[in-house]
């Protein structure tokens, strides 16, 4: 015996008044009504202070503390590796690329940067003076352990 498909339940009429498009608020538009043109926010400036920032969440790729304007990163060349390759890091006083970047997807170590880790700016971004869009109270494990140690000492 073939059963019949379930029937859709009847639509329930809404008692709410329809909202006009001009009265709707889009959060991405910073509270401005959809039917009004607003000025674009200013572009954030790249910080070029060479100061490492703390990470905002676990496993966050480090941000780039300098400008990378006109850096060539394509299949033929990677300007980042001039300074950050393990062979050159000491000479340029730059942090070397993590050993994880030399591992393939099967966790086997390679002699060169893994192709899936070659394009640096797919994960790493430059530091800017942009204000955070949402609040963040992340604390790294070292901060938490330090606070607990200080509490026990008092």
UniProtKB/TrEMBL annotation:
Biased composition (Low complexity): 1-18
Primary localisation category: periplasm
Name the UniProt record assigns to this protein: Periplasmic nitrate reductase, electron transfer subunit
UniProt KW keywords: Electron transport, Heme, Iron, Metal-binding, Periplasm, Signal, Transport
Subcellular location per the Swiss-Prot or TrEMBL entry: Periplasm
Family: Belongs to the NapB family.
Subunit-structure text: Component of the periplasmic nitrate reductase NapAB complex composed of NapA and NapB.
Spans annotated as Disordered: 1-20
PANTHER family named in the record: PERIPLASMIC NITRATE REDUCTASE, ELECTRON TRANSFER SUBUNIT (PTHR38604)
InterPro entries in the cross-refs: Multihaem_cyt_sf, NapB
Record function comment: Electron transfer subunit of the periplasmic nitrate reductase complex NapAB.
């Amino acid at each position: 015996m073939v059963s019949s498909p379930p029937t859709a339940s009847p639509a329930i009429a809404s008692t709410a008044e329809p909202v006009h498009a001009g009265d709707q608020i889009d959060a991405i538009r910073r509270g401005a009504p959809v039917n009004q043109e607003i000025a674009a926010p200013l572009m954030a400036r790249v910080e070029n202070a060479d100061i490492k920032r703390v990470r905002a969440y676990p496993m966050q790729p480090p941000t780039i503390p300098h400008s990378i304007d006109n850096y060539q990163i394509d299949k033929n060349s990677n300007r980042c590796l001039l300074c950050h390759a393990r062979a050159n890091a000491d000479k340029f006083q730059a942090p070397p690329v993590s050993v994880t970047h030399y591992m393939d997807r099967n966790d086997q170590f390679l002699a060169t940067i893994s192709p899936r880790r070659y394009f640096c700016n797919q994960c790493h971004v430059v530091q800017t003076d942009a204000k955070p869009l949402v609040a963040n109270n992340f604390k790294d494990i070292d901060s938490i352990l330090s606070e607990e140690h200080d509490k026990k000492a008092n």
